[in-house]
Amino acid sequence: MNKILLIEDDTNLAASLLKYLVNEGFSVELVSTFEDAMKKINLEVDAIVLDWMLPDGQGIDFLKALRKLNPAIPVILLTARAELTDKIVGLEVGANDYMTKPFEPRELVARLRTHIRTYQSLKLAPVKTVQILQAGGIQLDVSTREVSYRGKIIDLTKIEYLLMKLFLENQGHVFPREELLNQVWGLENYPTTRTVDNHILQLRQKFDSSYFETFRGTGYRFKVP
Question: Which secondary structure element, helix H or strand E, spans residue 7, and what is its range?
Fold first, then answer.
């Protein structure tokens, strides 16, 4: 039986979700505050359903803390926020999925089962040999997601890490902004490519800026001179 940590402060929604998930064969641990959620951060579960807004804090802060301890456990973020920018923030911090209230419980269950299958397959997969990507003093350890530059550990967001991994795996390749959005953000119909430019700027500030070449009107290339 798969175990779910449900973090939701809306009493009626929490009660209905708890009943529905139990009827679908899940074991559910329910908490309704940020404080109580933090007490359960090390709880052994198969997935987490997380409300963005809690009475004493934000679910997004719980997610940040969780990802430092467990980068792989599936987290589905629940929120009344419908803006695309909010969705991007949630995904960048580490959510696996995002559902806007109101939603259909059957869809939540379907997504939970999909993410749990993926998570369990990763846990059962044989341990792979350490893979190191490096260039120009940058070293990226795929197994630990640790990135260093000239011997110093560099703190990267999830999106910055994925961008660097993609660049290091494809040195010299010119990526159109739309391709970067598709491969890193997983968004095919994004209203603006400005977010790519902002993230490249952040990488330039953390590494040698000359490594990130701009192709006007097209996109970017990572190339060590």
Answer: strand 3-7
What does DSSP assign to residue 155?
-
DSSP letters along 81-144, please? ---HHHHHHHHHHT-SEEEESS--HHHHHHHHHHHHHHHHHHHHSPPPPP-EEEETTEEEETTT
Q: Which residue, 124, 148, 163, sits at the end of a domain?
A: 124
pTM of the predicted model, to two decimals?
A: 0.61
**198, 140: one domain:** yes
7: domain CATH number?
3.40.50.2300
Residue pLDDT, tens place only, 87-101 = 788 888 889 998 999
Structure-token pair, residue 87 = 């969705």
Residue 95 belongs to what domain range?
A: 3-124
Q: Which residue has the higher pLDDT, 70 or 38?
A: 38
